[in-house]
């Protein structure tokens, strides 16, 4: 099939970025970097200007998520990948239980399961595109799962596990969900994410809401004889974050973009507004797929469909790879599926920065390309 297709200009979205991460970055965020060039960039992260920026990020997130009393916002360098190792060292006392229903949940599960100082983890799995259910265990002190599985577009409920021990921690990977999906932080003890999805910044940073119980666990484990590298020690991150700084030098442009996005979301109505906006975009994709005779939503259960990542399977007679190539040639990019799934599908991000009208335009472009193919 030829992908030498020119999509009419009137069909194209105003912005053609629909990647599952990094997200589209708004022009206002880039302008914020420009404005920070002479006063902030290239200065010490231990001094007031940068510490004030970190404090703005922390306070803005607490406002957005209506953080319960006693919850703190920690920051660290390394992204969610580094946080998995930090959590294995600093949050799990003896044993973790994981829900693994896609690529990213499985990675944290492997981290705790391989740790030589922890008991073997319980790993509850389900097929990609579905969501398993946690089960209380007497010897588990951390329950962990992704709120949103970026690789498949499946979203899991965020609620405390019924029957779990009173001191068991609920640790939620919200990397692609935070800021775009509704959540009650009181149902979690650790809600962690990176800023390159709904917060439309660059990667390499992790952010975590931690409850008083999680702070107590961090302090408890830090006081034992367990060896923890300083870079991965959440006690190090806690002590620095309470001073509005990170342990080592962060990328200041990432913090500037993150702060700008937080302010934009809060000015428009906070998390409730953001969740409504992503739901509007996701509904457009779902309605389009349900009306199609050659496409279907990959996540079969509507209750488990994400509002920030939509995965659409195509009939075998339609080559999704050809669609993605034709779209890319016209400036509509990053709708390819997660590589390890091996599906004949498109993966469409509907993060907060992506305008719902652009999502509709994308769907119109897909229809046009299919007609031409």
Automatic annotation (TrEMBL):
Catalyzed reactions per annotation: O-phospho-L-serine + 2-oxoglutarate = 3-phosphooxypyruvate + L-glutamate; 4-(phosphooxy)-L-threonine + 2-oxoglutarate = (R)-3-hydroxy-2-oxo-4-phosphooxybutanoate + L-glutamate
Transmembrane helix keyword on record: no
Subcellular localization: Cytoplasm
EC supergroup of this enzyme: transferase
Cofactors: pyridoxal 5'-phosphate
Pathway: Cofactor biosynthesis; pyridoxine 5'-phosphate biosynthesis; pyridoxine 5'-phosphate from D-erythrose 4-phosphate: step 3/5; Amino-acid biosynthesis; L-serine biosynthesis; L-serine from 3-phospho-D-glycerate: step 2/3
Subunit and partners: Homodimer.
Function recorded in the entry: Catalyzes the reversible conversion of 3-phosphohydroxypyruvate to phosphoserine and of 3-hydroxy-2-oxo-4-phosphonooxybutanoate to phosphohydroxythreonine.
Protein name (record): Phosphoserine aminotransferase
Species of provenance: Glutamicibacter soli
Taxonomic lineage: Bacteria, Bacillati, Actinomycetota, Actinomycetes, Micrococcales
Gene designation per UniProt: serC
